[in-house]
Amino acid sequence: MAVQFEQEPQYDVSSLSQAEDGRAKAQPEDWKPSGHEILIIITLAIVSLLVALDASIIVTSLGAMANELQADTTAAFWIGTSYLLVNAVTMPVIAALSEIFGRPICLEFALAAFTLGTVLCATSHSVAVMLLGRCVQGVGGGGVHVLSGVILTDIVPLRFRPKWFGVVLGAWALGTCVGPLIGGAIVQNTTWRWVFYLMFPICAYGLVAVPLLLTLAPRAESFRDKLLRVDWFGSFLFMGSATSFLVAICWGGTQKPWESAAAIAPLVLGLLGLAATLVWEARFAREPIFKRELFNNVSSTITYVCGGAQGFLMWGCFYYFPFYFMSVMQTTPLTAGVNLLPAVLITVPGSIITGRLVTRYNNYRIFVWVGWAVAVLFSILSVVWRFIDVTTAVWAISFVFFGLGQGMVLNAQQFAVQAMCPAGDEGHAASMYLFLRQFGAAVGVGVGGSTFQNVMALKLGWEGLPIEIAAQAEGYIAELHQLPDDSPVKAKIIDAYRFGFAGVFQVYLGVAAVALLLSLLFVKHYSLDRDLGTEHVLKESKTSKMLVGEGGASSRALSGSSTAPPSRSSSNTEMSNSSMHAMAEAQPLDMTKYGWNPVAASDPEPIYPQCGSHPAVSLVYTEYTPYAPTSGYMTVDNAYNPSRYPAYSAASGSSMPDAGSYDASHQYAQPGGYMSQRY
């Protein structure tokens, strides 16, 4: 009779089949965060609110900044866009550095950079200083945004991550949605500098709370070893190439139609550089910032693509709808911000509720599909605005659909890629998804600007009006408001604005439709039931003990959840002898499945599929001593641990297969001996 070897669940990264998907049942909610972990989640939510607010508040306050700083249309465009561009470029590099140097120090650096950039912006009296401040803010904001998602992978099991990350995601969505409202209120009632002043209290909280609460300890190694692990060449090659590409995309949107060809050179250089980055990362980098394993199947690759599409659509809408209200509907900046409230009131609770439902039913696909279907419906409605009278009821209902669709996609897709990645790579998957979403946002704003100006210029030319108005569309709004309402020229210019926005919304409709089609065809189900797999272990601190008491650092032990293997980026993970003994004791020698099938000697025609014909063999377990190397390291070459094989002997009248024809070392293994990486 054959004995069976069951692979350990925490190392099983395969997806459920369609049949298994239908039989999957939701697990009871047996994991709860400790008090310390709740404080960390709240802190991440607060700093995520900060960076999202900074990105969106500029939309309705940009005109006032440009007027006081005497910035032309191009400079004003870069004041808003430079933040998103630097955000996207630095996110994967900061996430990769946090794997080596630790999450707390990298998040503290990001907050310090954001604070410095905010000081520069708040005190600037020239366009140059403002642009410098926005770029420094972008470095910090990118770090805060990506690390907020990565840190959740260190403390919350995947099955329950959508539920609890909904708090962080809700705060980020709230900041994104209310930013235009707050910006409009500020510029209408006081100086635009309060846009940056109000961020200082949140910055101060983050700078103090992160070192006190975020006690995630990375792998212990020397500073020299950490520096040697950094992929310096790949990081600088990527940042330079991505910057060139995004600048070309955004620059094309600031030029007159006949001058946009000047962006072709940096665009080509950026694309070539990004291609070179991928080759370097795949073949030469010791610890790549972009892991090829994350794109291990079509389903995961398409989900990342849809993540970029979601950033493209969401940020584009948040940038251009307030612009639409102030130009076409002639509202004030404050009213334009207020008009986005329906989107706020649906997006935030929608993302939180979606996270809870994903956790409850262990299924993200239905929310991805429905979310993109609703996004397509919203995009159709926004295109129809070109042909109807846009009343309050029309835009309010449209924004309800926008918030519902974005709220679903915002949460569900992010954890889909974490379920699809190899075990231990959840942090890398989270950072990759957030980077691509932010990269899509920067591209979306740039493409939207280019589309708007070119389409509007085309309409102005048809009407016999100066096409230069399109290149100065934002700055021209103040002059447009001063024209008499019954002026035929004003009506034609407003219609040109409307025509330009219709072109932008048609692009967004195409992106949403493609994302819906791809998600329906390729996004498959992967189970969210996976244990934590991280090198970064949360430890108690004096502050956590004071706030939540003893033993509040981690709920991992309380939940019965074991830690999965460290990330594959680890080449020399140190393990103590006591840890090795504990691992061995937890996994006894029983219920083992071997690569060949022994049968009773009385069977008429013994068949040995992998050994050939041999006399019957009996298997004898013997006690063993767990491997305890003096170096403190254990070497496993992506296979079975030889030190933990059970011993075998031939019974009376039988013999083992000939060693020359059968390699038992590849067939016999004890369950505790399997590990999926090199330590």
TrEMBL record:
GO terms for molecular function: transmembrane transporter activity. Residues 20-30 have a biased composition (Basic and acidic residues). It is found in: Membrane. Residues 1-30, 548-580 are annotated as: Disordered. GO terms for cellular component: plasma membrane. Residues 40-527 form the Major facilitator superfamily (MFS) profile domain. InterPro entries: MFS, MFS_dom, MFS_trans_sf. It is a multi-pass membrane protein. The keyword Lipoprotein does not apply. Residues 553-580 have a biased composition (Low complexity). The chain crosses the membrane at residues 38-63, 75-97, 109-132, 138-157, 164-188, 194-218, 230-254, 260-280, 301-321, 341-359, 366-388, 394-412, 499-523. Keywords: Membrane, Transmembrane, Transmembrane helix. PANTHER family: MAJOR FACILITATOR SUPERFAMILY (PTHR23501), MAJOR FACILITATOR SUPERFAMILY (MFS) PROFILE DOMAIN-CONTAINING PROTEIN (PTHR23501:SF94). This is Major facilitator superfamily (MFS) profile domain-containing protein.
